[in-house]
Amino acid sequence: MSSRMGGTPIMVMNQQVQRETGRKAQMSNIAAGKAVSEIIRTTLGPRSMLKMLLDPMGGIVMTNDGNSILREVDVSHPAAKSMIELSRAQDEEVGDGTTSVIVLAGEYLNLAAPLLERQLHPTTICNGYLKALDDAVATLNKVSRPVDMADTEELTRLVQACTGTKFISQFSDMLIQLSLDAVKTVFLDDGGRKELDIKRYAKVEKIAGGSLEDSRVLKGVMINKDLVHAKMRRRIEKPRVLLLDCTLEYKKNESQTNIEMTDDQAWEELLRQEEEAVKEVCSEIIAFSPDVVVTEKGVSDLAQHYLVKAGISVLRRVRKTDNNRIARACGATIVNRTGEIQERDIGTGCGLFECTKIGDEWFTWFVDCDAPKACSVVLRGANKDVLNEVERNLGDAMNVLRTIYLDPRVVPGGGATEMAIAHALVAGSKTQEPELAGPYRAAGAALEVIPRTLLENCGADIIRVLTQLRAKHASGTNVTWGIDGEKGKLADMSELGVWEPYAVKAQTIKTAVETAAMLLRIDEIVSGTHKKDKKRAPMQQQGAPDEGGDDPRADA
Known about the structure:
By secondary structure, the chain is an alpha+beta fold. The protein has 19 helices and 24 strands. Helix 4 (about 100-115) runs antiparallel to helix 14, helix 4 packs parallel to helix 18 and helix 7 packs across helix 12. The two termini are about 45 Å apart.
């Protein structure tokens, strides 16, 4: 950037910096958004293709999940990075629609290009898009209907619509049952306050070997741990479970400590005191006669000796998250000091404690719990690639159910909702102000990309079928008509049983429009910003004073 003063150009910005301004920057962002959406466009719908990606470590990822693909793709353009973040946000918020949101955002950017060429200001385009978004949400509310949460068949059909487009669609019945069992186990309705924390309390454990049909949801928790001593009991029915967050060893000092002794008796006294401390800790535990002790810290050999004599089985160095799940499943309370143990802290809700070996590894099971509010989903499969993909698909299915439990409304799938909103927006554009009419109409036309992509991916006659679908929606009564993604023909989604959660669809449209509006507002891209001199950096880390400032050590 230069400014002219008295005929002499004054350089303000570093000449090494690369800059794109105005129309060039906007077209660059539109091209980047379109490129990202083209990457995953073929992964939409039941006839979707898979992508095989090689990660930097040499591992292979095979998936058609939009978020998983874009997570592995390395891009340099800032607008493309923003689009990839969009997919991640969608996955964390509602768990589904990660491909749709990218395809939709790419189309919104693509349709803004001709508007920019007609010299429309980006702010005007954004205003038109955002006004259309408000009307789109109003139309979405009209076409939605409530769900009966007690009707398992309807919930099954909902998850079927999500998993039918995934890699494991042939095992979708089994997957739906797993996700339903897991979500029902974890769901907590406490006086109107709904809590459904799948990430924390529904852990997926992958064990290679066996077949996918062997997968199941446990009425309890499984962890990949073995007992600390070979003589401890490996099977206990109706165990009393004690959970600890402290070490079963003598206390070590936090900092380095040196002890000087004048004779060997003092050394023996020190050892005796250490043993006494461990014995006291064990006696405090044994006083409550638990059958199983689980601790997040270490267990010394001496403590193992005392606990084996008392017939107590011990697990050590269990992760905090696993300990929390065991606490929810067994009804136990995690105790921080052995001196504070009370009878009510002991968990008695577990039906069976068992240690078994699968393959080369030992697994510990806390199962047959009375009212478990946490569970483990055990997945079996041929190899780790299949297991990873099944885990991703199961995560999507559970997220869809979570969304439905928290907002029990659904809208027609198969592009029917998008077509209904597109028709409403195109019709509504005639009543808008002249400068907003173009962007408002484009916001409606962009939504047609979803049914168009579904038709592309199953090799149908796109123009003919899409025209038929427009004609169906023109009357305004056939809002449930969409594309049968398997056959590439028109179908009534209410008869086909393809419904999608309202929250997923609303989040998809809102996120796509807002991201497109944000990227269109960018009128300058500056890359290669100035970095600090590498030679000075180490000196500053060593505490060297900055130039022109006081020495920070002077105050010490």
